[in-house]
Batch of 4 targets.
Target 1
Amino acid sequence: MLVCGSIKNYRLANIFKLKINKAYMMLGIIKQNFKHLTVSTFVLLYTSMVRSYLDYCSSVWAPHKKGDTEALEKVQIIDTKILPALKQLPYSERLKACQIPTLHCRRIMSRIRGNMTETYKIMTGKYLGCVAHSLIKEEIYVTTACML
């Protein structure tokens, strides 16, 4: 993401703003170069050019502040207004017409997929024995501590 020495100069909020600005730049490129978009063309362009910046490393810097999640959703709200046929519809209807989930929903689903992948690796022995054993010990401790 960033080169070694420059990471100290950036806070997470700055990196977050850079990613949102890059997504807006990509949206500008789409607006400038594609005047007559169909829904399917828009979805293809949006998912490959804009959403990739919003999803980049989202499991690491997943926004937990309300303002951050609203800033992310605002990008998608503006993006879906590009289509003239859908411009007058509410945001939820535009998402249904494009068959695009909200970004918040995508982040939740990626966490669930990550947890399922880790569970599969532990259960099938894909981890080294000592790592899997320590993970299982932690799980036993956590579940018994929650039951008390």
Target 2
Amino acid sequence: MTLALAGLVAACAPAASTTLPVPGTAPVLVGAHNDTSTPFNLVSVPALVAHRYDGRGLRITDTLARQLAFTRYAVAYRSGQTRLGPYVARLNIDGMILDDPARDRALRRLRDDADVVALIVRIDSPGGTTAGSEAIYEAIRKIAKDKPVAAVMDTIAASGGYITAIAADHIVARGNTITGSIGVIFQWAEVSKLLETIGVQMQEIKSGDLKAEPSPFKPLSEKAREVSNLMVQDSFAWFTGLVAERRKLPLDKVKVLSDGRVYTGRQAVAEKLIDELGGEEKAVDWIKKEKQLPADIKVEDWKVPPEDQGLFGLGLRITSGALKAMGLPDLVQQAQMQKLDGLVSVWHPSLQ
């Protein structure tokens, strides 16, 4: 988010032009508020005026200077988010957590936004892929290096949703929120008996015994089971290590808590898996105290810029909304599950 011009023009300039110092070196064309053909949107300027930026200052014609005499601030943002002053950003993490480059770009924008002084992450997710959960955890931890981050658990924040939550420095949940499910699962359908019944036999030529194992087309060999279990246990050790580190709990206790069970918010507080019960207001109170922010600080949704939404993600959201409107939410879940290819950190009774 780049500040192109900020200033207060108190009176009309008698000279032919007025120069205001601004950072940068590259030429740029600044348009009016609704002009989308240029890299910037100039906010609060009543007319479209083209002018040159030559690295020494922004040269404004006398006509524009007269117009700016009635304008307090003229601010341009690259991201299209027109905000003035500090605020607390609210980021919503809903549904399945997948590896999502568009989401990661949006989080980098949020981290670099100087107006964002803190972050609230609202989570309503049963989890997702282990790799996707790892990516969002790392992105939130980078934000937390410079800005306080609090997590608010809504209906469910389990497994990969809990990984997202422990990236924050303070976790709030409702008493009946479902959380926990600390664990990793790797599952597949084995349909060899079905194929045998219908008279289909799979043939294969492969470079090694463990290539494409486990396979849905034959029973699992002991060697493939052993290798797959090693992979699951490696990811599980990573997950439990995160919990021990972030929640400041002994690893032995975390291992007891990590048998895959879910907890209510009340149980999670008792086990020190979260910090307190409540809603977003509790998270805001913690942030205000941590950052010593004014009582009237605003909390605003972080809007993902259109270029960071991704065509598939947008299409999935539209489709999900349509299916839910038709009373078919289970189809939404099944569609999301089709993308869970690999190690999974997820909990939901209908998805097991």
Target 3
Amino acid sequence: MFKKDGSSPSNIRDVAKLAGVSIATVSLVLNDKPGIKEGTKRKVLAAAKKLNYIPNIHAKRLFTKRTGCIGLIFASHIDDVLSNLVYSRVFRGASKSADRNRYNLISIYGEKEFIETHSLPRIVLERQADGFLLIGRGISRDFAYALKEQNVPLASVVSLFENSNIPTVSPAFKEGTYIGVRHLASLGHRRIVFIDSPFEYWSSRMRIEGYQAALLESGIGFEEELVFESDLTAEGGYIATKKLLDDRVDFTAISAVNDTTAIGAIKALKEAGLRVPEDISVVGFDDIELSIYSDPPLTTVWVPWEEVGSTAVDVLLDVINGSHDGREMIELPVKLVVRESCRDVSKGRGSQR
């Protein structure tokens, strides 16, 4: 910022002169280095504020050997990322943590370049970021291992695959699926369809374990014919539900992998002349903004996706700074949100819950 008299902006020498300290001391204070007395630190910060001093980011990077950037690598195409309500919440949380720690975010979309050329993105090879956050279940094992071979700090949102040895922040998928299915069982449902994500995903296996645990605790046997695979989209939920209807599967409730899938399932049920929740009860997962506006408002499992994003950036910064505690998995708690898409069938028609 220019001075009021129109002269050049203040520099580090001006701050040092006003504070009565050396340039090196100003640099140490502004870079939050240890070993500086509190009184000296206060003088330097007061001088910098009075002069509206803005540090030269390029000089700071030379001093710290850091870029001040974090790379967000999404498995999906940019259009899919921008339209995904979960990704938007993760990004919002990541942005808050980055801002708090004075970092910038750089987004990289998809693995197309790696898949086609077997080479990593330039941002990785040229070390344009201090670390990378992997986001999305579609990140492949080969891609993740290629990144690890570059010895760059890594963390991920949702585990990519078992034994990745990459610090990960994830919702409690097993617990979340468990509480959704237990809710349906508590309402008297015994034939509960589970529409899952692609079965190769680690999160899919966690959900299946939650589904099975809820059935077991409710005294309900597991039937493989009640588990369907989808692609996490509304269309996927619609297609899976059409299939189970065409196959004349006997069921009274659906637990869906996410709210988007649940909304697609509800559309297929309505087209078949079935009412929700009078004929079929439906539970979602994520509690996206649209879930309260679905018809009927969707009972779902709330996930703190924004906190997942912010925590993941915090973990990555710990890895960058060499202070990570070694935990490979951090699971954040979820909770049931009851609205109007489920019916109690334990005593006749019952009520909507």
Target 4
Amino acid sequence: MGGGTLILNQQAANDTLSHLGSLIVAPGTTIDIKNNDLLLDSASFNPSSITTSATASGTGPMTVAAAILSGAEYRAFHGTAATFDGQTVADSQTLIKFTYAGDANADGLITLDDYIAIDAGFRLGTHGRGWTVGDFNNDGVVDAKDYALIDTVYLHQVGALAADSLMALHAGWFGTDYVTALSATTVPEPATLSLLTLASLAILVRRGRHV
């Protein structure tokens, strides 16, 4: 398809799968998957052209995303017998999943496996390699913005006490770039807790400048 935006229908439940033989997206075209998943036998598109305007319960729109993986990547994470929404997966296929920003392996949660993936992508400088190495905003690099996205969702899952050490670590790595990116995401309630967390990280960064 070419030109404009194609918006898929919002489904009553997540993990509703559409299996397409081919999808070719021309430059300048956007596909809004809403809360749908797609399994494509062949595909040609820029990852930034695939978006979602849907939201997940308890989170803001900036904490969900359209994860894009090859079948080979998905099977590497989950095993050769793994299925995607009940469908078998071939290495050559492309999978698009409505999930949380930061869910590198597309299992619907933020876990240690996802942090291993983004850390490897960041340390190895695997630019332009996509979702599975931590480029969760599809800008071609793994940086402070991607860590802010995954940390925001992790904060929502486990609470501030469990997430504080990770957030402080990433504030130390990236400084004000991270704090700014974190404040730009939709941070879960309670809002007062979010403001206190951001204020603490800002103080930590300012102190680090004097060391």
